[in-house]
Design goal:
Length: 164
């Protein structure tokens, strides 16, 4: 609820509609069962979902997610990515900007990509035009192959074989 007032703690009296909206957002982000829990006892995945819910209650037009899967295990990461995919496809969703170093986190709802190197734009376009082996090799300074499996992209380092 404090996200509604952009504060740590609640210093204004929320309206009944504020509580209804908070419950709806918590349900969408699958964190309704943890609303009464102390933040410090939550898992990293629960914390991430709760922070995103806190941001959404203010009804932003833009939501910037900076490495939201950092520190999450595989299951929690996939759970969060699924929730973000649903969020991005929902009516009246904010524009989502997702910052990551991990291609596999770029779910289908994200249509465009900006590739940065040394603080400068190396490429920007539809993601299928940016998530290419040559561009990513240049960005990371190492030879790698980008493959698309299903609806996700994956990077694989080109390792010299022991026979070379």
């Amino acid at each position: 609820m404090s996200g509604k007032f952009a504060s740590i703690g609640i210093f204004e009296k929320p309206e009944p509609e504020d509580y209804r909206q908070a419950q709806e957002i918590a349900s969408r982000l699958r964190c309704e069962k943890i609303l009464q829990s102390a933040y410090g006892v939550l898992s990293q995945g629960e914390k991430q979902r709760l922070l995103i819910a806190r941001a959404l209650i203010a009804q932003p037009e833009l939501l910037i997610l900076d490495e939201p899967c950092a520190g999450l295990d595989l299951v929690a990461r996939e759970h969060l990515l699924h929730i973000l995919e649903e969020l991005g496809q929902s009516a009246n969703a904010p524009t989502l900007i997702y910052v990551t170093h991990h291609l596999e986190e770029i779910v289908p709802v994200f249509t465009h990509a900006v590739l940065l190197k040394d603080g400068r734009v190396l490429a920007q376009d539809r993601k299928e035009n940016v998530l290419q082996s040559g561009l990513l090799s240049a960005a990371f300074g190492i030879q790698l192959d980008v493959v698309k499996a299903g609806d996700r992209y994956w990077a694989h380092l080109r390792m010299a074989s022991s026979a070379d």
